[in-house]
Every structure is written in C-alpha cells, then in structure tokens.
Amino acid sequence: MLSIENLKVAYGKVQALWGVSLTVAEGEIVALVGANGAGKTTLLKAISGIIAHQSGAVIYNGRHLEGSLPKAIVKSGIVHVPEGRKLFPEMTVTENLLMGSYLAGPSERRRRLDWVFQIFPLLKERHHQMAGTLSGGEQQMLAIGRGLMAGPKLLMLDEPSLGLAPIMVEELFRVIAEINTAHVTVLLVEQNTAHALAIAHKGFVLELGKVVLAGTGSELLSNTDVRKAYLGL
C-alpha cells in the first residue's frame, strides 16, 4: 500500500531524516517507535505533504506522491491525525467532526458520522458540547473521529496517547485495533512502545532519522535492545 524509499528531509541545515525506507501493507497496523527527535513526526508530515523532502520517494498504491498537495493526498485516502489534536475549541463536537468530511457528499457524510458515533459513543452523547470543554481523552477521541470522517484507507496517528490517563490509554489502543478491523490500515507513531508494539503487525525503530530495527510487533517487544532503550527492562 505505502512504500517509503530512501527518504531524506531537512529543516534548513538540520537533517531530520537520513534515507528512511519502510513499507506498510494494506490491512496492517505499523508502529513507528523511537525517542523524541528520532524523526517520526517528520516522516508523517512528509507522507502527508505538509513538508517537502530533499530526495527519495513516497509511493502509495503504485502512485508517487512527491509534490502532491495535502488536499490531494487526503483525497487519495491518506489521513493524518497530528500530535496535539488541533481541534477547533469553540466549535461543537459535531462541527469538528464535519470539518473532517469536507470532501464527502451529504449521504456519505451522514454514514461516516454514524460510524464515528458507533466507535465513540461518548462523542454522540456530547455532540452539542464545545470541543474545548472536553477532557484530554475525549479530545483525542474527537481528533481521531475527525480523521475517520475523511474516509481514510491509511490512517496516520501521531502520539495519540500523549498526556492521557492510563485507563484512557488502554481504551485508546483498543479503539485503534477496532478501527483496523474495519479495513483501515494504521501507521502509528507512539512513545508508548509497549502498547504500540502489542497491537502492531510490524514495527520500525527510528533513531536520529534512520531506521535501526524492524520486525513484527512481538519480535521488537522481545528484542533486548528495544526492551532496554524503550521499555526500561
């Protein structure tokens, strides 16, 4: 589905990615793990067209995305839910959700809204509530729900569990697995390495802009270096 080939990205003179290559197959949950500054967020931004890259290729379903506008990338089926939620705090839950479906027609928009409310029943209960008054966990649900309203084939999530209480973290990863069963491929950036690799079909470890390890989720969870560096074991 997605192939990243020797991707290089820099912010001015600061090199962020040094020839990253990886693949995401249709139907997978793929986890990108690593410390702050490893290049995980930069990679997602390059895939979604938010930032340009120096060289390399981003190939989605056989089509090169280099130079494509973010709107065109969303239309192709790649949806990026950024770190920090980026909601509209003075708009209601429903209004925020509908902002994610601006490319869909009325009937498809309604179908997607019903699906999001099925996945996140709490959002249905709070559909008239202002987004800025929700708890952190509820806001993260809303951010993911807004991403789903765009009808993704590939959903990219950047640090969805950041700042959440442990009980909300458990619920969040359960929901990510549920979304995947609805034929949505997931590319997941997470510092919560244990949870991310536990649900991932495969994972990649980034360090200083390079892929240093790759394997199935269970292989990386049992890897001694991963356990020492990211699990404190």
Unreliable spans are none
Helix % is 25-40%
* Largest beta-sheet characterization: 6 strands, mixed
Q: What's the number of extended β-strand segments?
A: 10
- Strand-residue fraction? 25-35%
Rg of Cα set:
17 Å
The shape is: globular
- What class would the helix/strand composition place it in? alpha/beta
Overall pLDDT confidence:
94
Task: Please trace the helix and strand order, writing H or E for each element.
Answer: EEEHEEHEHHHHEHEHEEHH
Cα(first) to Cα(last) distance is 34 Å
Helical stretch count?
10
Give the strand order of the largest sheet, numbering strands 1, 2, ... along the chain.
6-7-8-3-9-10
Brief summary:
By secondary structure, this protein is of the alpha/beta class. It is 39% helix and 26% strand. It contains ten helices and ten strands.
What's the arrangement of secondary structure elements?
Blueprint (H helix, E strand, L loop, with lengths): L1 E10 L2 E11 L4 E5 L6 H8 L7 E6 L2 E2 L5 H7 L1 E4 L11 H7 L6 H14 L1 H5 L10 H13 L5 E5 L7 H16 L3 E5 L3 H7 L2 E6 L2 E7 H6 L1 H7 L3
Parallel strand pairs: 3-8, 3-9, 6-7, 7-8
Antiparallel strand pairs: 1-2, 1-4, 4-5, 9-10
